[in-house]
Specification:
With about 375 residues, the chain is mostly beta strands. Helices cover about 10% and strands about 35% of the residues.
């Protein structure tokens, strides 16, 4: 099929577009009203919760961070306690293998004014230019997802414009306890405030799970407006009011237009590479190869790492820092604990380590690898 619409998903093809389509595709569109979609119409990465490079479960969460499933942050402002996990409880017959489960393990009720609990994901401005935000032709957005909880009632899904401090919120209701339900929300296009065309945060999708009066004492802002804190999550239930409360979500899709299309399943390897733009686990565990290291001076070795995809920005290095987690091999095996820094590159890195045990001349080569099951070397360029 011919490429119809550049970077703008869900646009109806023109006569010229139809003329360039294969006969079968054109016939299907005209006679059956088939919807024509560009690949990657889902703005969200890892909406099916299938990638979890950091691990599958973290307990005792009472602050915001990236914990399990890639591209999704979760947390609270230091109240209560939660376990976040990649789970296999999914809606039947929909094609999903995983969901994210959020389990309240330490309750808090009533909430303090500033208390909030959110599950959210962020987007680069350069990925959103086709939405034409800030112009008269701004695209509407449709959010769809599957959700399940024993805590029924009203929940809030917010779009926040990080560039212009604007937001819009929509409510949805979990009607039946512990039953998978599909929700669809439509957000009008915003004719005010363009997204910056760069690799920084421009848009955040926030799924509220609890909100104190600071965020819920006003009237829900269901149209785009300058940020008013009290209008962001009015009506939101408190998922933290009982340790019996659980929340599952999967199949999250955000797309241009006013109609929710079927969830766009991507091949696992494609989804993984998209996630590695933001976080990349290079090695995790024992006896894993890191690569060749080259001696520099004063017992220092530089080891070169090539990323599978170019990262969003110069990453920070994440390492386990446990005693003897890593080793180098020359005539002898020498262990070391930490990496000393990182260079300003997005496609690869030369990362140094030093150890009194490493007796190596400048230019001399060693082999570098992990030494213990606790070893971790990862790179982070999350928004």
């Amino acid at each position: 099929m011919a490429k119809l619409i550049g970077n703008a998903p869900n646009q109806v093809p023109t006569n010229a577009d139809l003329g360039s389509m294969a006969f079968e595709d054109r016939t299907n569109y005209i006679t059956k009203g088939a919807s024509v979609h560009q690949p990657y119409r889902n703005i969200i990465i890892n909406g099916d919760m299938s990638i979890a490079q950091r691990g599958t479960s973290v307990s005792g969460i009472n602050s915001f961070g990236y914990y399990t499933v890639d591209r999704w942050q979760f947390g609270t402002n230091s109240f209560g306690g939660f376990t976040m996990s990649q789970d296999t409880d999914v809606p039947t017959g929909q094609g999903f293998a995983y969901s994210t489960k959020i389990d309240c393990t330490t309750a808090k009720t009533p909430l303090s004014a500033g208390d909030n609990c959110q599950f959210f994901t962020k987007f680069e401005g350069q990925m959103l230019q086709y939405l034409k935000k800030g112009t008269a032709n701004a695209e509407s957005l449709t959010l769809s997802f599957w959700v399940k909880s024993n805590k029924t009632g009203t929940y809030i899904a917010e779009l926040y414009d990080d560039d212009n401090n604007r937001q819009i919120s929509k409510s949805y209701t979990i009607d039946a306890s512990n039953t998978w339900e599909k929700k669809t929300l439509i957000y009008d296009g915003d004719t005010t405030g363009a997204f910056n065309n760069d690799n920084n945060i421009s848009l955040t999708l926030r799924l509220w799970l609890a909100s104190g009066s600071t965020f819920s004492s006003g009237t829900l802002s269901t149209t785009w407006t300058s940020l008013v804190q009290s209008n962001r999550a009015a009506g939101q239930v408190n998922l933290a009011d009982s340790t019996s409360n659980d929340f599952w979500i999967t199949g999250v899709q955000l797309e241009a237009g006013t109609t929710a299309s079927d969830f766009e399943f991507l091949p696992y390897d494609v989804n993984l590479k998209r996630c590695k733009r933001y976080y990349y686990t290079y090695v995790n565990g024992i006896d894993q190869s890191i690569g060749i290291g080259v001696g520099y001076n004063n017992n220092k070795v530089y080891s070169h790492v090539n990323f599978q995809v170019e990262m969003r920005a110069v990453p920070s290095i994440i390492t386990s820092n446990n005693t003897n987690d890593f080793r180098s091999r020359k005539a002898n095996i020498d262990t070391f604990d930490t990496w000393d820094g990182i260079q300003t590159q997005t496609k690869n890195q030369s990362i140094p380590f030093s150890s009194a045990q490493v007796a190596i001349a400048t230019g001399e080569a060693v082999w570098v690898e992990t030494n213990q099951a606790t070893a971790l070397l990862a790179f982070n360029s999350e928004l």
